[in-house]
Design brief:
Strand 15 (about 370-375) and strand 16 (about 380-385) form a beta hairpin. Helix content is about 20%, strand content about 15%. Helix 2 runs parallel beside helix 6 and helix 2 (about 85-100) packs across helix 7. It contains 11 helices and 17 strands. It has helices spanning about 25-30, 85-100, 110-115, 130-135, 155, 180-190, 195-205, 220-225, 285-295, 305-315, 415-420; strands at about 5-10, 45-55, 55-70, 75, 80, 215, 230, 235-240, 280, 300, 300-305, 320, 345, 350, 370-375, 380-385, 390-400. The protein is globular and about 55 Å long. The chain is α+β, with helices and mostly antiparallel strands.
C-alpha cells in the first residue's frame, strides 16, 4: 500500500454535507493526485481510512492508499465505500424512527405488515417480531442465498426450509444471519409504501446531511464517481469499479437480465437494495452516525431518535454464556473466528466481553464499546463508540487478507491496528 497519508488532528472537521467536500482534504488530494507514488505496491491493504470523533466533532483523521488502483486515485475520508454490515446499524435507526412514529412495533408479528404468514416451518405457532429479526434470533440462517434477483419474492424464497435453523426456533438462539435484514426492509416498505433506499434516505441519511445511499441508485453521479473500489487481497476487483460514473445497474438484475426498477413493489422483495450490507458511505459519514448515537439521537439540531430509542438499539439482548448462540458468522466464518460475537443488541454489537471463549476486543483495552463491524468483498470496517468516555472511531480498509489473524482478538490485524489508531 502506498504510504502517503492525509491527517488532521487539531480542529474538528466540518460536517460532511450534500454537494460539499472537505476543502482541506481536496487540496491535499489534488496536490498529490498525479504525483509519484500514486501506485499500489501489491503488499498489505490497498487503502485504509480512520476517523476519530467525540460528541462535538471529528478529533483526528487519516487516509492512505488508493480508492482506485487503475485510476491512481488516492483515497480520502470523504470517499464512499460499501461498508458491509455497519449498514444494519443504520437500518436500526430507521426502524426505531418508524417505531417512535407508531408505524411499527418491535414486538408485533411482522406477518401483519408483510401481508403473508411469516413463520419458521418447524414452529408455525411462534410469531416473529422486529426485535427478533434485528437481534438475529428469528431462526433464519444464511444457508440459502439472500441476494435475490430484482424480480424475486421474499415469501417464495423463505418458503424453502433450508433458510431456517433445523435446531432452534424463534427467540431460542442467536445466529448471525444476513437474511434477517431483507425481511426487515420488506416490513419497512410494507408499513410506509416507500422504496427501501429512498425510505432510509428520508429517515436517516438526509436529516444527517450525508452523501450516502444503498446500492448507488439514490446517490448522485458525483458521489458514485468517487466510489472506493473494493479489492481482494490479491488485487482482484470485487465490487464497485464504477470507473468514475454512476452504474447503469446497481442491483441484482432480474432473472431475464433487465434492471428495470419500476418492477419494485412495496414489501415484496426487501433484498433489492442489499439492506444487510449495501450502504455506501464515507468514513466521515460514519463518524456522523457515531456522533448521533453518542448524543442520544440528536445531531446539529436534528433529533432523529429519543435517548430511550438509542438505548434500545445499543443495549445487548443476547449475551454469550447466558443464552444459547453462535459466536461467529456461519456462512462466512470458521472455528478460527469463534468469539467474534458475544453480546448483541438491535443491530448493534458490544465489544470486550469478559467471558471465557470471547475474543471480541480488537482495541485490547477491555472497554465495552458498542457499534458494528463489517466484512465483505475484501473490506473490513468498524464503527465503535465508547459511551462512557464520549468518544468513537470509524474506519474501513480494503484488500485485506482474511487469513491475517489478529493478535488479541477474532478480528484481523488490520482491524486491530485501525481500532487502536496504530
Amino acid at each position: 500500500m502506498t504510504s502517503i497519508l492525509f491527517r488532521t488532528a487539531l480542529a474538528p472537521l466540518k460536517p460532511w454535507a450534500r454537494g460539499g467536500v472537505l476543502a482541506g482534504l481536496l487540496i491535499a488530494a489534488a496536490g498529490c493526485a498525479s504525483g509519484a507514488g500514486a501506485l499500489d505496491d501489491g503488499e498489505g491493504p490497498v487503502a485504509e481510512v480512520r476517523v476519530a470523533f467525540d460528541a462535538s466533532g471529528v478529533t483526528a483523521s487519516r487516509a492512505s492508499g488508493l480508492a482506485d488502483i487503475a485510476a491512481g486515485r488516492r483515497i480520502t475520508v470523504d470517499d464512499p465505500a460499501r461498508v458491509a454490515s455497519i449498514s444494519k446499524l443504520v437500518i436500526a435507526i430507521g426502524v426505531m424512527r418508524l417505531v417512535e412514529e407508531g408505524r411499527l412495533s418491535l414486538d408485533a408479528d411482522v406477518s401483519q405488515t408483510l401481508g403473508w404468514r411469516f413463520r419458521h416451518p418447524s414452529h408455525p405457532d411462534t410469531p416473529i417480531t422486529l426485535r427478533l429479526l434485528l437481534s438475529h434470533r428469528s431462526g433464519l440462517t444464511d444457508q440459502t442465498s439472500y441476494a435475490l434477483p430484482l424480480d424475486g419474492e421474499l415469501e417464495r424464497a423463505l418458503a424453502d426450509p433450508e433458510a431456517w435453523s433445523k435446531t432452534h426456533g424463534p427467540g431460542e438462539h442467536f445466529e448471525y444471519a444476513n437474511f434477517n435484514f431483507p425481511v426487515i426492509a420488506s416490513v419497512m416498505e410494507g408499513a410506509t409504501g416507500e422504496r427501501f433506499d429512498r425510505l432510509v434516505d428520508r429517515l436517516v441519511l438526509a436529516p444527517l446531511k450525508l452523501d450516502a445511499c444503498f446500492n448507488w441508485d439514490a446517490c448522485d453521479a458525483d458521489t458514485a464517481a468517487r466510489a472506493v473500489v473494493l479489492y481482494r487481497a490479491n488485487r482482484e476487483i470485487a465490487r464497485d469499479d464504477n470507473q468514475g460514473a454512476k452504474p447503469d445497474c446497481s442491483v441484482t438484475p432480474a432473472t431475464g437480465g433487465d434492471c428495470d426498477l419500476t418492477r419494485w413493489r412495496p414489501g415484496v422483495n426487501g433484498a433489492i437494495f442489499s439492506p444487510q450490507g449495501g450502504l455506501r458511505i464515507s468514513a466521515a459519514g460514519l463518524a456522523r452516525i457515531g456522533r448521533l448515537l453518542l448524543r442520544g439521537g440528536d445531531l446539529d439540531g436534528a433529533r432523529l431518535l429519543t435517548p430511550r430509542s438509542v438505548d434500545l438499539i445499543l443495549t445487548p439482548v443476547w449475551r454469550f454464556g447466558e443464552t444459547p448462540g453462535a459466536t461467529f458468522e456461519a456462512d462466512a466464518g470458521t472455528d478460527a473466528d469463534a468469539g467474534f460475537f458475544c453480546r448483541y443488541g438491535l443491530a448493534s454489537q458490544t465489544l470486550a466481553t469478559a467471558v471465557e471463549g470471547c475474543r471480541d476486543d480488537p482495541f485490547g483495552d477491555g472497554v465495552a464499546r458498542v457499534g458494528h463491524a463489517g466484512d465483505a468483498y475484501g473490506l473490513k470496517s468498524g464503527l465503535w463508540i465508547d459511551r462512557a468516555a464520549g468518544t468513537g472511531v470509524a474506519y474501513f480498509v480494503t484488500g485485506v487478507d482474511p487469513d491475517d489473524r489478529g493478535v488479541r482478538s477474532a478480528f484481523t490485524r488490520a482491524e486491530e491496528r485501525l481500532a487502536r489508531g496504530e
